[in-house]
Amino acid sequence: MMTDELLARHRAVLPDWMPIYYGEEAIEIVSGSGRRVTDASGRSYLDFFGGVLTNMIGYDVAEINEAVRRQLATGVVHTSTLYLIRQQVELAEKIARVSGIPDARVFLTNSGTEANETALLMATNVRRSNQILAIKNSYHGRTFATMAITGHRSWSSSSLSPVNVSWLASGDRLRGRMAGLSTEDLAEAAVDDLREVLATVTAGDVAALIAEPIQGVGGFVAAPDGVLGAYQKVLKEFGILLIADEVQTGWGRTGEHFWGYQAHGVTPDLITFAKGIGNGFALGGVVGRASVMNAVPAISFSTFGGNPLSAAAGNAVLDYVLSHDLQANAARVGAILLDGLRALDLPILAEVRGKGLMVGLEFVRPGTTEPDPAATVRVFDECKAGGLLVGKGGLYGNVIRIGPALTLTEEEAREGLAVLTDAITRVDAESRIG
């Protein structure tokens, strides 16, 4: 009853366009520990979505809590960047070191949207052009410029834009221009597509290409390793910058590498990040080459970006990621999920894709590649009934997204895998009957 009342109050004061999971069965999460959360009714869930890949270390983590308490004890939560902020400088130093970019500079923000806006500001200034290359099925944020470079109709609520966008094909192998292509053929087709776009629908002086190494909201679709490297060879011919949107792929989540871009043999000019680095505290930013980062011909700062409290949390998060080698854990534990899910041979499950602890499950009508969002919702609800929280996404709403905390244990991975297997098997059986 308490949840019903809260849902009614939510609907009375918040916009209709804000989605809320589970409809009339919406839950309020009131506590959490490790990888588990508890709702207002007292029911516990294993969390495989982590606040949309944001609670990267999990819940109630002693090291992060203590770092935040120490900062709170000073009485200073905010000073603005007009004054020196030790926590901000220390965090920026660490991010610059792990970025892989020589002589890097860091600008801290509140979110991934703001980070991507900042990257666009820098790239368009250094190139003196508002032309941007973006990739279909991408998601980069909810402000005007980031919506304009979001190639996902469900998240694009306005055609207004301060940038001129030209689109490249996504790496989706189930449908679209790249459907059915081998790794080698897809890479070649992607480069051909880039050259064609540059030759036909741009004015030549393009500022940058922005790309997610693995598309997050798009359902964890990814082009084969090396494609960004092939792109960059072409981009360099024209002086075009490369922006890697690592908001969901960064900090070791893919297991193979610390950043998603590293699977492609490139060094981006700019990297944007957010979500996991704050483990729930509002924190994002851009790290990049000094010559690009400094190319803003006016005063600018983020009022709350890199504030002492969020930066204290970010320092503790990054220290924890590195000292506990969570990248290796993501590879090891993610393999349990990927191997187990790929072993399922069920008609409704068209593809299991991803790396490390970033896994997408795409559902279709049996015998076709036609998306089946209804079956996806049933799997989603069956997971909740089994005590597992997962996410949804994809261009057609037919992808289950899995992004647990990087601290997930092998035992928890097997527990979640069992719930997923049961849910998918149950819905597959229903689809055969229906």
Summarize the biggest pleated sheet.
7 strands, mixed
> Count of helices?
13
Indicate the radius of gyration in whole angstroms: 21 Å
Strand segment tally: 15
Spatial strand sequence of the major β-sheet: 4-10-9-8-7-5-6
Stretches with pLDDT under 50, minimum 5 residues: none
Helix content class: 25-40%
Shape: globular
Can you give keywords for this protein?
434 residues; alpha/beta; 7-stranded mixed β-sheet; 4-stranded mixed β-sheet; 13 helices; 15 strands
Question: What can you see in these coordinates?
Answer:
With 434 residues, the protein is of the alpha/beta class. The protein has 13 helices and 15 strands. β7, α8 and β8 form a beta-alpha-beta unit. α4 runs parallel beside α10. The chain is globular, with a radius of gyration of 21 Å. The relative contact order is 0.15. The mean pLDDT is 96.
Summarize this entry quickly.
By secondary structure, the chain is α/β, with parallel strands linked by helices.
Question: What secondary-structure arrangement, pairings included, does this model have?
Answer:
Elements: H1 2-13, E1 29-33, E2 36-39, E3 44-47, H2 50-53, H3 62-73, H4 86-99, E4 104-109, H5 112-127, E5 131-135, H6 144-148, E6 164-168, H7 183-200, E7 208-211, H8 227-238, E8 241-245, E9 270-273, E10 284-289, H9 290-293, H10 308-323, H11 326-342, E11 349-355, E12 358-363, H12 373-385, E13 388-389, E14 391-393, E15 399-402, H13 410-433
Parallel strand pairs: 3-13, 5-6, 5-7, 7-8, 8-9
Antiparallel strand pairs: 1-2, 2-3, 4-10, 9-10, 11-12, 12-15, 14-15
Helix pairs in contact: 3-10, 4-10, 7-8, 11-13, 12-13
